[in-house]
Amino acid sequence: MKFKYIPVLFSSIFTLSLSSCKDQLADLNxxxxxxxxxxxxxxxxxxxxxxxxxxxxxxxNMNSSxxxxxxxxxxxxxxxxxxxxxxxxxQELWSSGYTKGITNLNKLVSLADEQGNTNYRGVxxxxxxxxxxxxxxxxxxxxxxQSVQIKAYVNPVYDTQKDVYFGLLADLKSAQAxxxxxxxxxxxxxxxxxxxxxxxxxxxxxxxRIALRIADKEVEKTKAVLAELTAEGGALIAAxxxxxxxxxxxxxxxxxxxxxxxxxxxxxxxxxxxxxLRSMNDPRLxxxxxxxxxxxxxxxxxxxxxxxxGDASNYGLTKTSKPGVYFxxxxxxxxxxxxxxxxxxxxxxxxRGLSNENAAALxxxxxxxxxxxxxxxxxxxxxxxxxxxxxxxxxxFKKSIGYQKWIALFGQGLEAFAEWRRLxxxxxxxxxxxxxxxxxxxxxxxxxxxxxxxxxxxxxxVARQGADLLTTRLWFDLK
Length: 479
What we know:
49% of the residues lie in helices and 4% in strands. It has helices at 22-28, 40-56, 58-68, 92-115, 118-139, 161-178, 196-213, 219-232, 256-261, 271-279, 285-288, 309-313, 325-328, 339-351, 359-373, 378-385, 397-408, 413-423, 449-453, 455-465; strands at residues 72-74, 142-143, 158-159, 244-246, 267-269, 334-337. The protein has a two-stranded antiparallel sheet. The protein is globular. It comes from Pedobacter steynii. It holds the Pfam family SusD-like_2.
């Protein structure tokens, strides 16, 4: 499947580098070389590609969240692994999410209404909900309700994280109603190739994800969402072949991880996950990690997170493990939500007593799905799932699910970061030379430009949520 090369339309409309002249804003930001009425399929392709790149890319994944949750570590230029960030270092998720994602998807909704194509509208709402979810999970309170009406709200208010989650659940329910397999076809879909039934499953999987995100704070809302899903028939992602993911191509449309390792050599596997996988005889170790270039006693060697640059370099570039070749391949997929995650979520819902399903059986199926996702043999899967080290503990479901979900989400830094904060497992040790007084980051800090360009709303959010620091606990993160 080939990517369409398109200008990212309307991408500067929501940068928030705005004046008070609302009526002039759109005119100033028009690209004279762009079509006044963009094509829906081009907008869809562009929004998917740009958001997947942002999700799987350097700033929000490799250089932050993958380090926080100790999937990866840094062997050179180790400041990010020590939690040293300015308020400009973590702004790419914000700027790209709003300008290339939400703005384009809002336009796609408008085009869908003009064309009478509810499937474009439904798909746009699903993707927009995912982008908003990434933003609120990372930053907390964010512009949501007013962010879709730029002419009316140049400086949008920040909605509380609770209100964002509740709003996204309503948006996804609405998207589910919009999506109709018998309706008009869509083009430009580089996730599911226009298969609307799979988009309906994707929407429901996101609803399930959010229902658990709020379960420790708003369990009655969680119950209501589960009841709605049941009443609607609630089809969910049911096989690895149905995973919501972007399958990359060769350069220049290669996976961002592959693109980075073509020219840089800053990253290694974290000692935390390498040692964990080895202790469990986990067959994913040689998939997640590459053998050391030089022969070493253990073959797969991670380095501790958050070392000083000199101490990290002493481990040696040729004596430590890069991520596995699976992840370094140009065509490696950017997974958004997997069958394994859906099964883990169902297992947790059962463990919380919110369904009549068997939590232990679903936990086992989730592990099997993750192993199958990476082509592990049936014999190895059987041996692993029978191992005493990974058996389900009904007395501490958060620990059992937390550890295995952390492994299954390898490479999905932002989602793994959210789930680690929610489940509190695995119990990670902060960076060796970390700068947060023995703490691990709990959020992204807001972009610096928000303080000057949307200052009043920024200050209101900080006053309500807590200091704009890496260590401020977000609403959903109940300790």
